Each structure stands twice: as C-alpha cells, then as structure tokens.
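Bug #2210: token dump truncated for Cytochrome P450?
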Amino acid sequence: MFELSLAGQRTIFLCNTDLIENMNIPSTKTRYPFRRYIVSEGVKEYGIDGTGIINNIDPKSWKYNRQFFAQAMMTPSFNYQAVEWMNELWSEMESFWNKLGENHELDLIKWMHRFSNDMIFKISIGKRNNSVASYYHTLVPESNDLDEKEKEKIKESEDFIQSLETLIRGAIYFFYFNRFMRHYVPFIRGKAISLLKNRDYLYEKLYNIIKERRTEIENTPLNQPLRHDMLTSFITANTPRDINIVRHGDVDADLLRPITDKEILGNILDAIGGGTDTVSNLFCFIVYHLGHHPEVKI
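Reproduced locally. Full output below:
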C-alpha cells in the first residue's frame, strides 16, 4: 500500500489482493464506490470521461453502454463478418510484404499495430481506415500508379491514425498536471492547447462518420438488410431498424432508449483505442514465442 498525489488529489494504491477483494465484488450493495480511476478536472476538460465503458465511472451510464457492446459482439452475423474481414485484410497485408521483397526487414510491431487498427476500425465503423496501405506507402518511394484521390485517402488515413494515438497518449497531461499548470506554464500550456485541438479534430471526424451512417440508414429501404458493424448496431439499437438479435441485461426502461451520438462516440473510441494496442501486442507475443519454441508449431 502506498499513496501518491496526482493533479492535487491524494490517491491510495492497494497492491495486495486481500485488501481489494471486497472492492471487486459484483454486488451493488458494496460499501465501495464504482471508481476505476481519479476523475480530475483535467480529465473532464479533455472530454474523455462519462461516455463509453472504459472511462465511465457512473454505474448507470456504464451499464447502459455495456449492453450495446454485448449486443454487438454477440450477434452471430457480426462475428461471421469480422472473421471474413480479418482474412481479407491479412491477405492484403501479405501482398504488401511480397511487394517489399524477401530482403526487406519487417518491423512486425508496426505492421501488427496497423493491421489491428485497420481491423478494429472496420469492425466498429464498417469502413476501412486503410492504415495498412498507408504504412506500406511510407516504406516505398512515392508510387506513380496512385492518383491524387488515392494519395489524399492515404494521407487522411495517416492523419487519423496519428490523431488517435495523440489523443490516447495526451491524456496523461490532463491527468497529471493541474489546471494552473495547463493554462499558465508556457511549455505545458502550449502542449495542452495542441492536444485539445487534436481532440476537436478527431471528434469532428468521428461525429461526421456517425452522421453519415445515420443518413445512410435512413435512406436504406426497410426491406434491405443493413450491414453488421458496431456503429450500425449502436445507431439502430432500440429503434424500428434494430439489427441486434441477442439481448442481455435488465429490461429497465432506462436501458431501452436509443443511444445518443455522444454515447456512440465514446463507445467507438473505446473500441478503436482499446482494441488496437492489445490485439497488436497479442500477435507480436504469439509470433515471438513461436519463434523461440518452434516445437509447438502446428
């Protein structure tokens, strides 16, 4: 057990399982509050609290958002399409490796990071982010077979990836530094302003994607099936166009309302941010251990 002062707040860290066992019970009658981390004023200013499930400490809101994750992930057609998309993306990535040639040294960490980002983007939004293709074109001289439209698409993809990484890594500034430091200390103030501009850029891009998908769904005939991705699942949830077959949780009236754009944004960020590094690291660890223990290969 030890304590630390973060952003002007005293925090006690418990490292012994005996001390935290009672805090992790699922009962709603526990004496301990539903808190995963400190919700400082900096986190609120950064705009990453109160939505989704990762950064949500409100039990009611967390429960409401979690049900949509369960519905989207448990739909059979969604899982089937996810496997198909992954196979297609892997084949595309292999084709890029073949173009680079056998003498090119592959940075597996970077490739897997782009692969998982492209995959989770497709699963969550239903569209490719082209992050694999974008990374490939950073490794080879500018190709003449790409027209201006394709080059712009690659650049937009790269900007989006960098913006997402900046959003995640920039949270530490708003978590550790108090309001005075973020607003008045020269270097930190400039960094905070830059991070907020990046956040606004990323949020605007995602809100536009949500808006465009809503319009597509509204213009889709009722007799025409909708594609199965998380964004479509979120937008249609608890509406006449609901594509969710599997339902979980209570039948509380508060859980039966349609989800707002802000809540969709939080869930999409959770999916993309939480599913990129974890999946890419998993792939890299698997390859690493298979390389050191070839006897377990099938």
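Output looks complete on our side. The domain at 66-296 is CATH 1.10.630.10 (Cytochrome p450). Marking as cannot-reproduce; reopen if the truncation happens again.
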